[in-house]
Amino acid sequence: MTETLEGTEASPAQDPRQDGVHWQRFAVAFDYPVHFTRGLFDPANPVLAETLARLEPDRCHRCLVFLDDGLLTVRPRLAEEIAAYAEAWAARMALVAPAFVMPGGERLKSELYFVEQMQQALFDHHIDRHSYVVGVGGGALLDAVGLVAATTHRGVRHVRVPTTVLAQNDSGVGVKNGVNLHGQKNFVGTFAPPFAVLNDGEMTDALPARDKVAGMAEAVKVALIRDGAFFAWLERQADALVLFEGAAMAHMIRRCAELHMRQIAQGGDPFETGSARPLDYGHWAAHKLEGMTRNHLRHGEAVAIGLALDARYSVLTGLLAPGEEARICCLLEHLGFKLWHPALDKRGPSGRHAVLDGLRDFREHLGGELTITLLAGIGTGVEVHEMDEALIAQAIAWLKQRTAD
Hints:
This protein is α/β, with parallel strands linked by helices. The protein has 2 domains: 34-205, Rossmann fold (3-Layer(aba) Sandwich), CATH 3.40.50; 209-237 and 271-404, Dehydroquinate synthase-like, alpha domain, CATH 1.20.1090.10. The chain has 16 helices and 11 strands. A hairpin with a 2-residue loop joins β7 (176-181) and β8. It is globular and about 60 Å long.
């Protein structure tokens, strides 16, 4: 006789191989605010202080801040601004140390020394599960800080302050954290939602033009797979976006973020336990191109090439109407993207395009069967489970010819 979880007794006739097996099932709800504001660290702006006090309004919250060093080229006194903000809101927050400045970009994600350095800072300053780790920077810094926060004490509160277009409209509002290892992008990582995401429009105002443009690729991507009306808006507003007009940039960032958040919340697989990853349309090639060029191509620049490549492939397979791939390429080029890089033509000893190894990497990262998102129309993504390498080669040749023309 075996006691079950409900306190009843099992029948003696029960198959002994099943005796004592209990299923544990529970659901955990995740919720976090995504704010869109300006002047986040202006003491007159209460958003950060109120965010930290959301769960415990009557206590002062201990905070450790990590800053992307790229920010200091345009905001050299940002650490002092944050310290002044904390002093002004001393009843709500306290910095346990001056902000730590970390390298931005893929270097931070590729050299594990920096992860250890951040973990050491959390240890030294006794950051616990009711303290906050605040990451202020681009997507690479947020990925790495998020991993540190998620794995310290099995999870401390992480507030993301994305400072690039790409981070504000895509990676910063999501649930992924990670760093690179063994030459694989995001080989080590977690799915751990942040405590909050605070998007400050002033941060993107000061970005170099190349960084502003790079972030637009994810807006085109999510429009292509989920919102044809947004794609049409991007076409109509392309001139304003090229000039980085404030209203157009703000709408583009916010709508892109909303669509990413909708997919994560309503797509049925927020932690990607299955094989489908629709938000990675165009990314199988993009990730490989980033590595092949040693990140000479920014992520958004590589994604733009991947979008164009898979759009042409979608036409070649009969999924997408002919001419739609040219429409997509025209928008990307209008926004400032170059849709050809010599790395696309790099070949192995057999003559096979090296970028095709990105399909293998993609499958390994996902596990299970290969699942690639292609286009059945502008605004409509569709999943396929195989890719014809000969047709991919034709799509590459098509992109190369566009450049030649």
